[in-house]
Amino acid sequence: MIAEIHTEKGLMKVEFFEQDAPNTVKNFTDLAKKGFYDGLTFHRVIPNFVIQGGCPNGIGNGGPGYKIDCELDGENQFHDKGVLSMAHAGRNTGGSQFFICHSRDNTAHLDKNHTCFGRVFEGVDIIDTIGQGDTIDKIVVVGEEA
């Protein structure tokens, strides 16, 4: 399954780690299909670290109204450039907030602590152009990769 993250800076295409993080992928794609992410911002941008979005309040303190468990045992639990991972306020407290890694340089400590559930495979250059407050126009789940 893949998705398109449409932003004001361009389009990023994502492939999901369905084998490693099936519940996290389902949660993210279900929210995307409902339009939850449409119009939200990247509320946290730290250069050479991550861009973070998915907070309905726009300041990092909101979510969908429920929490999901972390999935940390898969083969793809490494925070490399372009990897999507679930943000949380402690183990098993994720919901809708996610981040995309700028690089591996400053993210290795997140391995096996935050659920990696996909990676940007097209439009990776867009990650470095996103600034704090930039908008997620929409996230479209397009199905199986060709």
Q: Describe it for me?
A:
- By secondary structure, the chain is mostly beta strands.
- The chain has a single domain (2-143), classed as Cyclophilin (Beta Barrel).
- It is built from two helices and eight strands; from the N terminus they run ββαβββββαβ.
- It has helices spanning 22-33, 124-127, and strands spanning 2-7, 10-16, 42-46, 50-53, 83-86, 98-101, 116-122, 136-143.
- It has an eight-stranded antiparallel beta sheet with strand order 3-4-6-5-7-2-1-8.
- Strand 3 and strand 4 (50-53) form a beta hairpin.
- The model has no long low-confidence stretch (mean pLDDT 96).
Write the layout of secondary structure elements.
Blueprint (H helix, E strand, L loop, with lengths): L1 E6 L2 E7 L5 H12 L8 E5 L3 E4 L29 E4 L11 E4 L14 E7 L1 H4 L8 E8 L3
